[in-house]
UniProtKB/TrEMBL annotation:
Catalytically driven reaction(s): Random hydrolysis of (1->4)-beta-D-mannosidic linkages in mannans, galactomannans and glucomannans
Species, as recorded: Dendrobium catenatum
GO MF annotations, alphabetized: mannan endo-1,4-beta-mannosidase activity
EC nos: 3.2.1.78
Ranges that cross the membrane: none
Any Pfam family matching the protein: GH5_mannosidase
UniProt-recorded name of the protein: mannan endo-1,4-beta-mannosidase
Signal peptide: 1-29
Signal found in the keyword field: yes
Taxonomic superkingdom: Eukaryota
Ranges where the Glycoside hydrolase family domain occurs: 54-379
Keywords: Glycosidase, Hydrolase, Signal
Annotated family: Belongs to the glycosyl hydrolase 5 (cellulase A) family.
Organism taxonomic ancestry: Eukaryota, Viridiplantae, Streptophyta, Embryophyta, Tracheophyta
PANTHER family in the cross-refs: MANNAN ENDO-1,4-BETA-MANNOSIDASE 6, PTHR31451
Amino acid sequence: MFAFSSSPLQMSFLLAAILTSLLTVTVSSIDGIGTTDINYSSIQRDHQRGYELEMVKTKGNQFVVGGKPFYVNGFNTYWLMILAVDPLTRVKVTETFKQASAIGLTVCRTWAFNDGGWRALQKAPFVYDENVFQALDFVISEAKKNNIRLILSLTNSMEGYGGKAQYVKWGKAAGLNLTSDDDFYTNPIVKGYYKAYVKTVLNRVNTFTNITYKEDPTIFAWELINEPRCLSDPSGNKLQSWIEEMAFHVKSIDPKHLLEIGLEGFYGNSTPDRFQFNPDSYSGQVGTDFIRNHQAMGIDFATTHLYPDAWLSNSNPEDHLEFAKSWMQSHIDDAENVLGMPVVFAEFGMSAKDKNFSVSSRNQFIDMVYKTILNSTRRGGGAGGCLLWQIFPEGTDFMDDGYAVVLKTSKSTEKILSLQSKKLKKFNSKCSWRCNWTCRKN
Ligand SMILES: *[C@@H]1O[C@H](CO)[C@@H](O)[C@H](O)[C@H]1NC(C)=O
Ligand SMILES: *[C@@H]1O[C@H](CO)[C@@H](O)[C@H](O)[C@H]1NC(C)=O
Ligand SMILES: *[C@@H]1O[C@H](CO)[C@@H](O)[C@H](O)[C@H]1NC(C)=O
Ligand SMILES: *[C@@H]1O[C@H](CO)[C@@H](O)[C@H](O)[C@H]1NC(C)=O
Ligand SMILES: *[C@@H]1O[C@H](CO)[C@@H](O)[C@H](O)[C@H]1NC(C)=O
Ligand SMILES: *[C@@H]1O[C@H](CO)[C@@H](O)[C@H](O)[C@H]1NC(C)=O
């Protein structure tokens, strides 16, 4: 693990030293401009290799690929595997990646699970549907073709596509004495179901590429569980033990990929002074803890989600912006000063179902999120990036939860996304070529 006590200044020197050695650059003037001597042949070689051979890693509070910074402008589309099962809708997966890639989005977060029910990948514990697995293979293979990396979530804490409620149902059907969905986090046999699932997915050999998932750099990271909460234990101990056990399990099978939890990012009992940044007092009591959870061994980066319209009751667009600003800044500060890892705003969006929704307020919100990220990027800070919830191609409205942004019909929003990609791309290349992680000259 990283030294949590390092100051940002120490950290930036450390990073500069690491980068210097990776790029075989000698910096003879302190500001990294002057007489910087760059080994172009080694940089060119990295470019030619593309991302084919490079896993995403972290150095301090930044993501790196092949020794270069990798700030993320990305998106969510949760249903890719599910629509890839049917040859008729499989084309929607390709369309999603093509459209996203065209505006410079580089990372997509999506479900690598479907526990029981319609088009289940895991039909029952230890029983997998080969046809659905091939749909997931297809998603990964198409992502790679379009230069998009994937964050793959391994189950759900919320309703939808099985998740912890389905695991508990399976446990009950097997005769276990389970009384709450939160038994998912504690019952040894149910934990065994989840572990078996994870092991099967990580060891899967992609039928399109022949690459084993755990070896595939197309995968940016694994996510333990989407939006975990454990209401039965506000102390947070139950969820913490589960995270520690499962992070160890994932890393023991796949030490190469990054791992995150899937948290919404509420502050919990380990930091009562941070409760003020939560949207309300309830969210501090859902059994999660942004700081403590992310300090678990094996967790590589932090996540938070951001839904001001859903989280704040009776609020207007101005309140949303104000909340979002303070929520993001506090998490960026903590990623830098306490956790020593990057933080990704892994879901953010606005629902068209909200009474006060308008496209212009959504655009303003997205723009504000992007500016806050850039403010961090500019000084080499801990905001690793953000993933809009969510991007849809045309003709998939039946999967829409209200948050879908259809790029083809939302030109004003598309423009904002595209501009952010351009700005980040500049940072990603300039930061590496200048070998100055703080990037203040830009
Ligand atoms: C990066 O550049 C800034 C501004 O020129 C400078 O203050 C800082 O010391 C540089 N950092 C490193 C590690 O060279
Ligand atoms: C640049 O890097 C390449 C590959 O690592 C190495 O072979 C070469 O000697 C380096 N050139 C200089 C001038 O350091
Ligand atoms: C089932 O578990 C509950 C809670 O742990 C316990 O109170 C109850 O006695 C158990 N029932 C049986 C049949 O073991
Ligand atoms: C995957 O491996 C099989 C068997 O070795 C081979 O026939 C096939 O061409 C390979 N496919 C790819 C995409 O490499
Ligand atoms: C919409 O905004 C107004 C204030 O502009 C607020 O009073 C109202 O509660 C908001 N509605 C919702 C559903 O949040
Ligand atoms: C930019 O980042 C600094 C340092 O984290 C913070 O103090 C400041 O409030 C941020 N400004 C904006 C406009 O987000």
